[in-house]
Design brief:
By secondary structure, this protein is an alpha+beta fold. It has a single domain, classed as Arc Repressor Mutant, subunit A (Orthogonal Bundle). The protein is 38% helix and 16% strand. It is built from five helices and six strands, in the order βββαβαβααβα. A three-stranded antiparallel beta sheet has the order 1-2-3, with no helix packed on it. It has a three-stranded antiparallel beta sheet with strand order 5-4-6. A hairpin with a 4-residue loop joins strand 1 and strand 2. The mean pLDDT is 77. It comes from Actinoallomurus iriomotensis. InterPro entries: DUF742.
């Protein structure tokens, strides 16, 4: 990691410029749309002019339905920041979202066993 003089230009040779998460979300800490980690999002239009490069990158990731958690992982951003970006896109109608289905109970043993098996296989 390199710091250049008094300007404090942070650069990681492998990752590129390091940007603090609050700059990506313009200092906002809460999304304006309720999104869960397993909510599915999909791009349905181009963002309006003036959107940040991160918004464009998110839309590129969301050509097919994808969960909020997956978007955060691909963007390498905290989930809270990712939710803010996604909420911006939902509000400007460039993205559609679908809340997770709640058809099974939270204590569904079969579902929990499948989840455990999947996690152990990673």
């Amino acid at each position: 990691m390199t710091v250049a003089g008094d300007d404090e230009v942070w650069l990681d040779e492998e990752a590129g410029p390091l940007i603090r998460p609050y700059t990506v979300s313009a200092g906002r800490t809460h999304p304006t749309v309720k999104l869960d980690l397993v909510s599915l999002v999909i791009a349905i239009a181009q963002p309006p002019r003036g959107m940040d490069p991160e918004h464009h990158k998110v839309l590129g990731l969301c050509r097919n339905p994808i969960s909020v958690a997956e978007v955060a992982a691909h963007m390498r951003l905290p989930v809270a920041v990712t939710k803010i970006l996604l909420a911006d896109l939902v509000e400007c109608e460039a993205m559609a979202m679908r809340a997770p289905s709640t058809t099974s109970g939270a204590t569904d043993r079969v579902l929990l066993e499948k989840l455990l098996d999947g996690l152990q296989g990673i």
